[in-house]
Design goal:
By secondary structure, the protein is an alpha/beta fold. The chain is built from eight helices and ten strands.
Length: 258
Amino acid sequence: MSHNSNEKCKKVYITTPIYYVNDNAHIGHAYTTIIADTLARFSRLKGLDVFFLTGTDEHGQKIEEAAKSRGKSPKEYADEISGGFKSLWDGFEISYDKFIRTTDEEHKRGVQKAFEIMLENGDIYKGEFEGNYCVSCETFFTKTQLVGEEFCPDCGKSTTILREENYFFRLSKYEQQLLDWYAQNEHCILPKSRKNEVVKFVEGGLRDLSITRTGFEWGIKTPEALNDPKHIVYVWLDALLNYITGLGFGGDEKNMKY
């Protein structure tokens, strides 16, 4: 959830996380969404220009496998679960301005545009990744992060050793730039204790990020400029970009919100 604290601009952008469609909505999803809705309604009462975004995260190996286990295509399965989320929010009269789905064509175009920009900036290179992978969390972990040398530190499930050709984003290139930005923008992360936590993490050194996968098919295709069609965009990059594609990034700039 984010907002611009400078009320002079009269604009507030509020988001929930986009919810993963591996299963139906539960009370934790409702809790987060109702809090965001409360802030959106309060901000509108103050006369601010509010844009409130929520939606669903629908790609990845976990979704592909969940759909297969139910005898459905990934899109059919995603349509069903995403529809359940939207119906629930409408039933609760959640005052969202847009419900985004990562299977939307607008979102796909925005993700591919972002990938092309990173490619043009020299921030993407091909490499090989080998590590312990948790299908449930769609995440690679180092040996030091694992519990008992095998189990995922987040969900506790057994991980699989995976070796795969990936494209990587040069996150390490931006380490100092991020630290400078945090120092120059006092209220960029609140509360302050969390900002200190983020700064310490970045100061510890950033590793380049894997941003493509090849072991399955349910995801956004990498742009033609990459010229490597067997790769799809890693779900973490795809999903995070919703916060700007939801505002119109990747489309006509004249129609972008904010």
